[in-house]
């Protein structure tokens, strides 16, 4: 068996690696080592990873190779390595959620989705960087340093899951896990030229996710192709009795839908353009690529219609009351008492209250404190109905907008993000400007419907943009059919994947 060049192995999709592994053309050890070598070469510049678990990943790879050599029937993705966002707990590997308050914490158990990754034989390369407790749109709020966009190292990779998206775009991993509370998988996908999927709420277990907002959080795939997302989604999805919000039914045929979509035929599919997600505030290049993608869908046989979701204009305001309120409750457990950081006051009597105050004061970053304060205020006596209660009523109206829109269309579409990746530091001092990056992605989380971002070209500044597809709850397969069709049509136009047009990262002297 000839050894494959490392660069060749890191450029292959997960589906291609799966085929090569099963055909005996390459071993999992070779594939895993190639990605570890790539991380060592470029992550000094990108900073996608907070922790690299080389020893464990190679041990898993060796086990997979031995089992395959013995003739054992393995999962199709067995031996394909993966990176995991650091908000997902991993037994034996540090899990910090990007926060100093959890620095050095090693969980005693695995999240359900990690159990499923391990059972399927995917070597875990390490844990990826993120905005602290998933609060942010740029990965600049990590307590452990900023992640850089591989397309332009002076720009943001999106957030909160910028580490996972950047790892894919930099060819440091063929697959990754992200979480999406208001766009944290899809928006990084858009600005890094990768594919990101937020499954239907409850479609992937939340057991073992460090909660930000329990009614909004959802784990999902971060990949370079739609088919790869479908393959990974089928590994991590499905019912989990340990998660009270887990859906009881099986997943629809996601891989089959993606493969069907690769034919590029969308005859009979009704595509609804959401007028409220395609107005002012969108960068000219983002709008231009969106209109071009719509034309490709029309040529593929889709019927494109316009739909109105009148309450989407209030989604951002409702979200930034619901999320901080739930975060205020969920983050109360980080108090310096049982695990993580503990800071004792330097003067006066040491009491539980003073330890908690000192720990939280030093352990949480500014953005986390901002949202905790906002959420605590919104839940306080006399204000609950006016703020949190009113936001939940708006949420119901948004759900009703989705229901009406899906009577007119099979999927809904919009640009994923209003702009391309902005420069590091550009919006750090303006929280509202930062929050507006999620204006198109937030409605899906409020309603619990699935969403996907597919890279659909470069804007006038030479940076990638994303095309968002939304489907009804439990109809994730529609995302994969339409997303794969659009991907196929675009790659025919481009002559290959969009990431082929990204600048090559230097591999020497790339420390930051």
From TrEMBL:
It catalyses: L-glutamyl-tRNA(Gln) + L-glutamine + ATP + H2O = L-glutaminyl-tRNA(Gln) + L-glutamate + ADP + phosphate + H(+). Residues 30-479 form the Amidase domain. Its EC number is 6.3.5.7. Keywords: ATP-binding, Ligase, Nucleotide-binding, Protein biosynthesis. InterPro entries: Amidase, Amidase_CS, Amidase_dom, AS_sf, GatA. Heterotrimer of A, B and C subunits. Allows the formation of correctly charged Gln-tRNA(Gln) through the transamidation of misacylated Glu-tRNA(Gln) in organisms which lack glutaminyl-tRNA synthetase. The reaction takes place in the presence of glutamine and ATP through an activated gamma-phospho-Glu-tRNA(Gln). NCBIfam families: gatA. This is Glutamyl-tRNA(Gln) amidotransferase subunit A.
